[in-house]
Design brief:
The structure is a homodimer. With about 350 residues, chain A is mainly α. Chain A has a single domain, classed as Farnesyl Diphosphate Synthase, CATH 1.10.600. The first copy, chain A, contains 17 helices and 2 strands. Chain A has a two-stranded antiparallel sheet with strand order 1-2. Chain A starts with a helix and ends with a helix. In chain A, about 55% of the residues are buried. Chains A and B meet through α3, α5, α7 and α8 of A and α3, α5, α7 and α8 of B.
Chain lengths: ~350, ~350
C-alpha cells in the first residue's frame, strides 16, 4: 500500500488535487494494516514449503513481489469494512483476487511477448515462456483453493469472472492487428477483461462483511463501473501517460494492434484516420501522427470525460450503501483511478 | 471408446493376445454406453451457447474432438461401476477429468512447440500459441465448475492433483536439455505429471459409486500405479513405438531433452552413454546410437519389466476391492496399458 499511496500522492501533487490528498490519508488509515497483512499472506502464498526451488514458484513470486497497485485487494477490504472489522475470510479473498490477477498477467505477458512490467523484467523474460505459463496455472489453482476453503459460495462466481476474462482475451486476440473500431466490442473486452474481476472483488468483500442483498448488488455495479473507468484510463495512458509513473511504454497497445477507447472516438470524427488505422500501425512516425489526431479531434478529452462519467455512475451506485469511512474510501479509490489520467 | 477399442484390438492382434481381446469385449460391453454419453457431454461442454465463435472455444473443441484414449474417463466410470449403475455425478466427473487432461495438453503443446497430436495439427499450430494458452485456461475453468457443482468435496483433491502436475512440469522444465539421469527425479515427474490425475479419477469414481473407505484408498493406489505404468510405457514408446499407432514421433522426448525411463536404466549400465547423453542429443545419428545402446544394455526390456511390475502391484491393490465385472474391467485396462509396449 505504501507504494500505491506514494504514487497516488504524486498524482495529487502533479494535478494539484489537495483535497484528494487528504482523503487519501483517510483511506490509508483505514486499510493500511489490513493491506499489510494481506501483503504478507500474498508473499507467503507464493513461497510454498518444500517447493520454493521450483521455477513456477520462483516465477510466480517474482511477479507478485514486484508489487503493483493492489487495487483489487483494496476493493475486497473496503467492501468488507463497510460491514465491520475485516476478518480472515475477507483477507483470504483479497489474497485470492490478487493471485487471479497475477495469473492473468503471467499468461498475458506470454501472449503479448511483454519484457517489462512494474519496472522489472517479466517472469517470461527471466524464466522463459513455459515457466510463465505454468506459474500462471499455479497461481490460479492457489487462488481457487483459498476461495474454496474460506468462502465456497464465491467459487462459481469467481470461475464465471475468470471465464469472462478468458473470452474477452479471446475476442481481443481474434481482432489483434485489425484495430476493430467498434465501441460495443471494446466494451465487451473492457468489461470481461477488467471489470468482471473488480465486480467479483466487491461482491466477495461485501458478502464477507455481511451486507444486505441490495448493497451487494450496488457494490457489484460499482465494481463493473470502476473497472470500466480503470480500463478507459489505462487506454488514455497508452497515449498520454508518463512512462516513469505508469510503468507502461507509450503506444504499447497501439503497436500491438489493440483497440483502445480514444482510437474509436477519434476514428468516428476523422474518416481518414479510421482508414489509416485499418491499414495497421508500425512505426514511430505514425504513432505520433495518431497522437496528434487524438488531440486534434478531442478524443483524449472525450475518453477522459467517459471515464469521469463511469465514475459518476459508480458513485451513484455507492449512494445506497451504508455511509461511513469505508464508503468514503471507495469514493476516493474511484477518484484516484480517474485522476491517474486527469 | 470406439476409437480406443479399435486401437487396443490392434495391439492385441499385433501382439497375439487373444485372451485379452475377449476381455476387451467384456470391457466394451460394460462401459460403451456410459462412455458414449460422456463423449456427447464432453463435446457439448466445448461448444458453449453464444461463445462458439470465440477462438478459445474453437481451439478447445479442436483438441477435444480429435479424440484420444479417454482412459481417465474410463477410470472414473469403472470405479463408479463397482458400486452400481453409473449416475450423472460420475459422468460429470468423467467429463471433468478429460477436460483437465485436455487443458494440460493445450499448455504442454505451447511449451513443447508441438505441431501434431492425435494425428492432427495441434490447436497451437492451427490457432496460435496464445489461443492454445487461453483455451487451456478455459477448459480448466470448465472442469472445475463441473466438479464444484456436482461433487464439491472432490474439488480440493482435484486442485491438489493439478498442483502436482504443475510442479512436475516445472521440475521437467528446470531439467530440460540436461537429461538428469536420476530415477527419483523421474519418479517425481511421472507421479506428479501422470499418476496424480489417474489417482484422482479413481477416487472420484469410487466416491460417486459410494465404495468403502478401504476400497477408495485401494483404488487411489491403483490409479497411482496405473499412471506410473502408463508413463513408463509412454517412455518406452519414444524409442520403440510405431508412430502410426501411437500418434507420437519417435525420439520426440529424447530430442526435447526429456529424461525417459529407459535412458536412466541404460546410463546406469553404460558410463560412456551417460557421458554422451549429458552432452545433449541433437541429431538423427545419435538418436539411433542411443536406441542401439538401449537395446544392447537391455534397458528397454528392463523398462517393460518395470511397467509390468507396477501393473502387478496395481492388480494387488485391486484385490481388496469387491469382485465383479467392473473389477475385471479395471484389470483389463491395466493389461492393455502395459500391452501397448509389449
Amino acid at each position: 500500500m505504501g507504494q500505491v499511496l506514494d504514487r497516488l500522492t504524486t498524482v495529487c501533487r502533479t494535478n494539484d488535487l489537495a483535497p484528494l490528498g487528504e482523503r487519501l490519508s483517510a483511506l490509508a488509515t483505514l486499510v493500511s494494516s489490513d493491506l499489510a497483512e494481506i501483503e504478507r499472506d500474498l508473499l507467503a502464498s507464493v513461497a510454498p514449503a518444500g517447493a520454493s526451488e521450483r521455477v513456477v514458484a520462483r516465477g510466480g513470486a517474482h511477479l507478485v513481489a514486484a508489487g503493483g497497485k493492489r487495487l483489487r485487494p483494496t476493493c475486497v477490504v473496503l467492501a468488507a469494512r463497510l460491514g465491520g472489522p475485516v476478518d480472515d475470510v475477507a483477507r483470504e479473498l483479497a489474497v485470492a483476487v490478487e493471485l487471479v490477477h497475477s495469473a492473468t498477467l503471467l499468461h498475458d505477458d506470454v501472449v503479448d511477448l511483454g519484457d517489462a512490467r512494474r519496472g522489472r523484467p517479466t517472469t517470461r523474460a527471466l524464466y522463459g515462456n513455459s515457466a510463465s505459463i505454468f506459474a500462471g496455472d499455479w497461481l490460479l489453482v492457489e487462488a481457487l483453493r483459498r476461495v474454496r476453503q474460506t468462502s465456497p459460495e464465491m467459487l462459481v462466481p469467481l470461475l464465471d469472472a475468470i471465464e469472462q476474462m478468458i473470452f474477452a482475451e479471446s475476442l481481443q486476440l481474434e481482432n489483434r492487428g485489425r484495430l476493430v473500431l467498434d465501441e460495443s466490442v471494446w466494451r465487451r473486452v473492457a468489461e470481461g477483461k477488467t471489470a468482471s474481476l473488480f465486480a467479483w472483488a466487491m461482491v466477495a468483500g461485501a458478502r464477507a462483511g455481511k451486507l444486505t442483498q441490495d448493497e451487494v448488488a450496488a457494490l457489484e455495479r460499482f465494481g463493473m463501473l470502476l473497472g470500466t473507468a480503470f480500463q478507459t484510463v489505462d487506454d488514455v495512458l497508452d497515449f498520454d501517460g508518463d512512462p516513469t509513473s505508469t510503468g507502461k511504454t507509450l503506444f504499447a497497445d497501439l503497436r500491438e494492434g489493440k483497440t483502445t477507447y480514444p482510437l474509436i472516438l477519434a476514428a468516428r470524427r476523422d474518416a481518414g484516420l479510421a482508414a489509416q488505422l485499418g491499414a495497421g500501425v508500425d512505426d514511430d512516425v505514425f504513432a505520433r501522427e495518431v497522437l496528434e489526431a487524438l488531440r486534434r479531434t478531442g478524443a483524449l478529452e472525450e475518453a477522459r470525460a467517459f471515464a469521469r462519467d463511469q465514475a459518476d455512475r459508480a458513485r451513484e451506485a455507492l449512494s445506497i450503501v451504508r455511509p461511513g469511512p469505508a464508503r468514503d474510501a471507495l469514493a476516493t479509490v474511484l477518484e484516484t483511478t480517474v485522476a491517474r489520467c486527469a
